[in-house]
Design a protein that fits this description.
Oligomer: single chain
Number of strands: 35
Largest sheet: 7 strands, mixed
Shape: rod-shaped
Structural class: mainly beta
Strand content: 35-45%
C-alpha cells in the first residue's frame, strides 16, 4: 500500500483554522464537545496478515472528513481518505457510512507498512477547504516478516570425490533481524560460519550462509539441508540440495578378449566394462589399430549400489592371420570429459609361417614347456659338474699322501711279439730317492732279457705337496743276458723296484 501524501496547503491551514473557531460567529461549543479516541497504542502483525486500526469519535464538530495518516508533519502520508477512494487500495472502512466509527482494515500487511498511524479530524474553513482539526494518540504498527523459503545453491561445475566445494543458503524479507541457521548432510550436523545479515530499503533483512562439503564417491544419494529458524515461524524452514547435481565419478574402464589366444578364422569377442560412474551420461567407441570400428552396447547404463552406474559394450573381430597382434581399444567419453581408454591385443594360436612374415609367434603353453626343460637341463649340468669336482678333489688329496710310479706299456711291435715266449724277458724299474740334496741322476741299464730304469732324486722338502712321480713308457732295447737289478743305496736313498714279466 502506498499512502497518498497530504496536501501541504491543508496542513498549513490547520493552525489558522483553530484560530477561526475562536472568532465571533463560530460555534465554539461544538468544537469543545468533539472527542476522538484511538485506543491501540501498539499493534504487532505478521506480514501477509490483515491489520485493523480503530478510531471512534464523539461529540459534534464542524463539517469535514475523518482521515488516516501515517506519520505527522510534512512527511506524513495519507492512508485513507473517504473523499478519494481507490477500489484497488488495500485499505477499506470497517463500518461504511458511519459518522462515529472510522475504523479501517489494511489487507496483506508488508514490512514497509510499519510506522505510526493517526486518525485525524478535518473541518472546512471559510474557503471550504479541509483543514486539520484534531488527531488521535496514534497507533504504532510493527510488522514481523517471515523469512522466505531457504534456497541452497552449489558450484556451477561438477566435482570429483574428495573435492571440497561450497554451498550457499539464502533467505530474505524477514523482520526482525534475529535468525538462526543450521546445516545438515543426511541428517548429520555440519559446521558453518556465522550467517551474514543485511538490511534492505524496505526495512527487512536478508541472510546468507556458506558451508564447505567434501564430496564422497557414494554421495549420489546424499543431500545437504539448510534449516532456518525465526521468531515469526512456528517450525523451521528448510532448503535442500541433492549432491548428485554436482557429483562426477569417472568410470573405471577394462577390456578383455575371449578367447585369447584364438584359433585362425574364429571370432573373438572384446568386452569393455565400465564400472562405478556417475552421472550416466557416457558414450563408447571402438578402435582397431586406431581405426574406428562398430561396436554394440549390451544394455543401457545400469544403476548399481550407492547410486552409481555400470555399462558393458562389445565388439566382435574375425581372428585372421593378418590381424594377429592387432590392438583393440575401447574409448570412453564420460560427461563431456577427456576420453579414457583401455586396450587388448588379438592373439592367434599356432599361426602358419605365411601369416608371420615378420616375426615368429610362440604359443604361451609351448614357451612354458621350453622354460621348464631349460631349467631342468641347467640343474643337471650343475649336478654333474659338482660330482666331477668332488672326484677330482679326492684324487688330488690321495695323490698328495705318497709318491707314485707309473709304468705305461706301449703297443707291442712285431718284434716284441716274437719274444713273448721268453720267460726271462722282463721290464724292470728302479726308483731311488736320495735323502741328500743331489742332482737327479737317471741310470738305465739294458740287456737282452730285461729293460731297466733307475731314478734317484734328492730328498724333497717336508710337506704334503711334495710328490716324486715316475712315468716309464716301455721301449724295446737291445737284449742281453738277464742281470740282477742294482742294489739301492742304503745310506742316502729310498728305493722302489718294479718288475713286470712279459707274457
Amino acid at each position: 500500500m502506498e499512502p497518498h501524501p497530504r496536501d501541504p496547503g491543508r496542513t498549513a491551514w490547520a493552525l489558522p483554522c483553530l484560530l477561526l473557531l475562536a472568532l465571533p460567529g463560530v460555534d465554539a461549543q461544538a468544537g469543545q464537545d468533539f472527542a476522538l479516541q484511538q485506543p491501540q497504542a501498539k499493534v504487532t502483525v505478521t506480514a501477509g496478515d490483515n491489520l485493523t486500526l480503530i478510531c471512534i469519535t464523539s461529540g459534534v464538530a464542524g463539517p469535514g472528513p475523518v482521515m488516516w495518516l501515517k506519520g505527522l508533519g510534512s512527511g506524513n502520508k495519507t492512508v485513507y481518505d473517504p473523499n478519494n477512494r481507490d477500489p484497488s487500495s488495500r485499505v477499506t472502512e470497517a463500518v461504511p457510512g458511519s459518522d462515529t466509527n472510522f475504523t479501517i482494515h489494511i489487507r496483506n500487511v508488508q514490512p514497509e507498512d510499519m510506522g505510526t498511524y493517526y486518525c485525524v479530524k478535518f473541518v472546512k474553513n471559510a474557503f471550504a477547504a479541509d483543514e486539520f482539526f484534531r488527531h488521535g494518540s496514534g497507533t504504532e504498527v510493527t510488522v514481523q516478516a517471515k523469512p522466505s523459503t531457504p534456497l541452497v545453491s552449489g558450484p556451477e561445475q561438477r566435482a570429483r570425490p574428495n573435492d571440497s566445494v561450497p554451498f550457499t543458503c539464502t533467505t530474505g524479507g524477514f523482520f526482525p533481524d534475529k535468525i538462526d541457521v543450521k546445516w545438515f548432510k543426511n541428517s548429520n550436523p555440519m559446521t558453518a560460519k556465522p550467517p551474514q545479515v543485511t538490511q534492505t530499503r524496505m526495512k527487512t533483512y536478508n541472510m546468507s550462509s556458506t558451508v564447505q562439503v567434501t564430496l564422497q564417491k557414494d554421495d549420489a544419494h546424499s543431500q545437504i539441508t539448510c534449516e532456518v529458524s525465526h521468531p515469526t515461524l512456528q517450525a523451521p524452514l528448510q532448503g535442500r540440495f541433492e549432491l548428485r547435481g554436482v557429483l562426477r565419478v569417472p568410470p573405471s574402464v577394462k577390456v578383455r578378449a575371449e578367447p585369447s589366444p584364438a584359433e585362425v578364422n574364429k571370432t573373438v569377442a572384446f568386452t569393455c566394462l565400465l564400472k562405478e560412474f556417475y552421472p550416466d551420461k557416457v558414450s563408447i567407441s571402438w578402435l582397431e589399430n586406431g581405426i574406428e570400428i562398430k561396436g554394440q552396447n549390451l544394455s543401457g547404463p545400469l544403476e548399481v549400489s550407492r547410486g552409481l552406474f555400470e555399462l558393458r559394450s562389445r565388439v566382435e573381430v574375425q581372428a585372421t592371420e593378418e590381424k594377429n597382434g592387432s590392438t583393440i581399444t575401447c574409448r570412453v567419453v564420460h560427461d563431456g570429459q577427456a576420453p579414457a581408454n583401455d586396450s587388448a591385443v588379438l592373439w592367434i594360436s599356432n599361426p602358419t609361417l605365411g601369416g608371420l612374415s615378420n616375426e615368429f609367434q610362440i604359443n604361451k603353453d609351448d614357451m612354458l614347456i621350453y622354460i621348464v626343460v631349460g631349467v631342468v637341463c641347467t640343474m643337471l649340468a650343475l649336478l654333474v659338474a659338482a660330482i666331477l669336482y668332488l672326484i677330482r678333489t679326492k684324487q688330488i688329496k690321495a695323490g698328495k699322501s705318497s709318491p707314485s710310479a707309473r709304468l705305461h706299456e706301449p703297443e707291442k711291435s712285431s718284434e716284441a711279439t716274437t719274444q713273448e715266449s721268453d720267460p726271462n724277458n722282463l721290464t724292470y724299474a728302479d726308483l731311488n730317492f736320495d735323502k741328500e740334496r743331489k742332482s737327479i741322476r737317471r741310470m738305465v741299464e739294458m740287456s737282452q732279457q730285461s729293460e731297466y730304469a733307475c731314478i734317484q732324486s734328492n730328498q724333497a722338502p717336508n710337506g704334503d705337496d711334495n710328490l716324486t712321480y715316475a712315468d716309464l713308457d716301455m721301449v724295446h732295447l737291445s737284449k742281453a743276458p738277464k742281470r740282477p737289478a742294482p742294489r739301492p743305496e742304503e745310506a742316502g736313498s729310498e728305493y722302489a723296484s718294479v718288475q713286470i714279466t712279459r707274457k
